[in-house]
């Protein structure tokens, strides 16, 4: 059954539920929830005494399936882990993050904001910063600087660290470009002086 759920094969899963009696493992519910198939989740819940863990909500949250997260929250008792909000934040699923914040008590770790920063999810970073106390790793912005500076990442850095020099991000970008492409043709500085 878990293979049918994993491959999102409704007709096979329905046949197995109605005609076989071996039951299934927890991975069937995990895959149904993680794949965003509410009908499969309901079928497994109704017809089988499927033992679950926190993984179904965790997996649905990571993939942004807020309707699955809500249904499991209302109909199952297993709950979720901190990975649910951490993963939802990392992937930019703001609606899921808001729901988990409002309806669940598990919370998140610093990893939620760290990953949202690194992946450039400004709205998620702003929500977590204004509504959660976990904060972010003090090195998260420095790690973000090692990635390609996108407009979204620039906005996050300016939001979280308004006290940094105004040209800080530009300096990081110039430094990175220098290390990749070398000095500009009109750059009169020697190699050992660096990009500034």
From TrEMBL:
InterPro entries: Ankyrin_rpt, Ankyrin_rpt-contain_sf, SecEffector_AnkRepeat. It comes from the Eukaryota. This is Ankyrin repeat protein.
